[in-house]
Amino acid sequence: MFRMLLSAIGIVELLSPDVLIDRAERLALDNPDDCELRPWVVPGARVEGFVFLITVWRSDRSYAAFKRFLGVIGLLALAFPRAYVDYGTKLAYTDANNCQWKPWVYFGTRLIGALYVIIALDELRKD
Length: 127
Hints:
Blueprint: H1 2-15, H2 17-28, H3 41-58, H4 60-79, H5 81-92, H6 104-126
Helix pairs in contact: 1-3, 3-4, 4-5, 4-6, 5-6
């Protein structure tokens, strides 16, 4: 099931990253119209979607490695949600200081981090 979810995210990122990014901004930012994305973000999302699809479907081994990698990302998001979001904001936005995240974003980042860690631990358990 997780493979299908990653595939759906990968397809959306590959085919219409601007729509996905716009919806995510409207959901998570108090002021999405005041934040300007860096020029590489939309093409980068396309590449990310393509990499998701290749990694998830190339082999069971690459899929397992991807899930273990998510655990590393998840540990960072779980332990340091504010730093994680702030660093990502600086990478993605030309005017990162103007971006005002809704209060739930940091808690949500921590939850997603915990989910990634659980996925990685489950994969490690299988090994």
